[in-house]
Amino acid sequence: MLDAFSAPGRFLRGNLHTHSDRSDGALPPAEVCRRYRQAGYDFLCISDHFLDRFGFPLTDTTPFRTEGFTTLLGAELHGPQTHLGDHWHILAVGLPSDFAAAGDSEAGPDLARRAREAGAFVGIAHPQWYGLNTADGLSIDAAHAVEIYNHTCEMLSARPDGVALLDQLLQEGRMLTGFAADDAHFKSNDPFGGWVMVKAEDMAPETILEALKAGRYYASQGPQIHDVRRDGDSLVVTTSPVRSIALAGRGARSAAVHGDGITEARLALTSFAGSWCRLVVTDGAGRRAWAQPARID
């Protein structure tokens, strides 16, 4: 949690999960990149579905990088099978361009391991949308993160959440991070609803990827988290105007400050000692931002 705010550099806004017409999106990669660049994003990963029916695309977005906008190569990987019998949806950001096609029987956990070994940031995509349980989450032992908010899943099925799975994995000892994303296909009102703010010293794709893996980022639907620092047995948080600043931890452990347009809170850490907590802020429109979980010594 603290590393993203104490590390050198600046926050870069990016989307890790979106699609083009190389798989099931409506727009060509050049136009997808143009729209994100125009919307003020600093970076983008087009994560087309890595499936045989689309030719196992690893969409090359390098021609669309500019001085103020960069891209990471990635894909949404699929393989058998979750506890419900569905194919996995595993986000892999930062794949090499020669990442090999998946075999018919290559299971989701194996695909995730192969992606991580190839250098990717691996995320468990939209777990609520297709009913993942804790055992499913634990089986993806190569994951760096859980997608805690998916805007397209909000728009299509009101199932955008991954926070519950993240908390269960944290309680099982897996210190994963959480990211928000659009999963935009540009077929409906699905872009620009969730993103990450990554702390990096420059805009090189390798620098952004390393920061993601290290957890030097926060996720947001709108609110900004300006600073998080520890002061003795308290956490001091400054934000854009919000209605609540809260900590959640193992079991029912929690601490919160509420108000109208508050921008700072001091939260006691004593109840989280020896365990973990994570920060979530909520603005007046109900939009949230999430900092990464941290162990509290």
Helix percent band: 10-25%
Determine the mean pLDDT: 96
Helix count, DSSP H or I runs of 4 or more residues: 7
Strand content: 25-35%
Which H/E pattern describes the elements? HEHEEEEHEHEHHEEHEEEEEEE
Alpha-carbon distance between the termini? 13 Å
Cα shape:
globular
Indicate the low-confidence ranges by residue numbers.
none
Structural class: alpha/beta
Largest beta-sheet details = 16 strands, mixed
Quaternary state, please? Answer: single chain
SS elements, strand count: 16
Radius of gyration, in Å, reads 18 Å
Topology:
Blueprint: H1 3-6, E1 10-15, H2 29-38, E2 43-46, E3 49-50, E4 70-77, E5 90-93, H3 108-117, E6 121-124, H4 134-139, E7 145-150, H5 151-157, H6 163-171, E8 177-181, E9 195-200, H7 205-214, E10 217-220, E11 225-231, E12 234-249, E13 254-268, E14 275-282, E15 288-290, E16 294-296
Parallel strand pairs: 1-2, 2-4, 3-4, 6-7, 7-8
Antiparallel strand pairs: 1-9, 4-5, 5-6, 9-10, 10-15, 11-12, 12-13, 12-14, 14-15, 14-16
Considering the chains and any ligands shown, give keywords for the structure.
alpha/beta, 297 residues, 16-stranded mixed β-sheet, 34% strand
What does this structure look like?
With about 300 residues, this protein is α/β, with parallel strands linked by helices. Helix content is about 20%, strand content about 35%. The protein has seven helices and 16 strands. It has a 16-stranded mixed β-sheet that branches. Strand 6, helix 4 and strand 7 form a beta-alpha-beta unit. It starts with a helix and ends with a strand.
